[in-house]
Every structure is written in C-alpha cells, then in structure tokens.
Design a protein that fits this description.
Length: 162
C-alpha cells in the first residue's frame, strides 16, 4: 500500500506537527535551560509552535478547505483546539515528569549519555522527555479537532458528483 504524502491530510499534519514539535522542544529547552518554570516554558513554547503550525496547516495540510470561514476565525478555532490539547499536554507532562523523576535512572542515563549536547542533569532531561511524551498524546486530538472543526468543509458547498 503506497501512501501519497501530497494527498494524505493526516501525514501532512504530522509533517507540520513534526516541525512544530522541533520548534516547541527547541524553545522549551532554551526556556528551561535559562531557569523558567517548566509550565511557563511549555506555555511560551506552545504559543510559538502553534502559530507556526496554524500557518503551515492552513496553506498546505488543509489548503482550500473551510473557505467559508475567515482566516481570523480559523486561527482562533485552531488556537482554541490547540489550547485544549495544551491542557492534555500539560497533564501528561506533569505526570511523566513525576514518574521519571521518581525513577531517576532514565534521566541519569540521558544525563550521562547526552551531556555533551546540553550539559543538563537528570531532572533537566526528564523535563524534555516529558514534554515530548505530552506532545505525542495531544497530536491525535489536535488533528481530529482541527480536521472536523477548524478546517471543516462548508456543508452547503459540498455535493456528491454523479
């Protein structure tokens, strides 16, 4: 079975989301490295990444969809859905961080083996891994919400061809 990236909205969403994740994790890492609380760092990284994701999803993933809505309306719907998924992300982030810090061997492993990259301790690496886990959980919910709400086709403009 061959999947055509040009036609699969979900794969396009994942590509855009992948870049958004890189943006999110990069800013989150910088913010945490410079002492911001992990929740504040996550919120700031979210705003930066979600704005980028909206732009690229609107011009590529869901191009020519929901043309009956203004760009500002789609942006606010996108931000709202993403905001709900941010809550999911923060819950998973907090639970993951609690779990990883309780079982420090994973963070210690990363600290011992990745220290040449970021010079972080086990708690620092646990924060990064927890953010990645939280993003992973929120991705599916984000796609479904945006496909069926933000970029939903206008039912008056869709018709069945004979």
């Amino acid at each position: 079975m061959k999947i055509d990236l040009r036609k699969s909205a979900f794969l396009k969403f994942l590509v855009v989301g992948g870049f958004g994740t890189i943006i999110n994790i990069s800013f989150y890492t910088i913010f945490v490295k410079y002492g911001l609380h992990f929740i504040i760092a996550s919120l700031l990284a979210f705003v930066i990444a979600v704005t980028s994701n909206y732009y690229f999803n609107s011009i590529w993933t869901f191009k020519n969809r929901a043309t009956h809505k203004t760009k500002i309306k789609k942006y606010f719907e996108f931000i709202s859905i993403s905001g709900l998924n941010l809550v999911t992300n923060l819950i998973i982030l907090t639970i993951s961080l609690w779990f990883l810090n309780k079982n420090m061997t994973f963070g210690e492993f990363l600290s011992n083996n990745l220290n040449f990259l970021l010079e972080g301790d086990a708690v620092f690496y646990n924060k990064i891994v927890s953010q990645i886990i939280g993003i992973g959980f929120a991705t599916i919910l984000n796609y479904l919400g945006n496909k069926f709400i933000t970029f939903k086709e206008d039912p008056q403009n869709t018709f069945i061809k004979p």
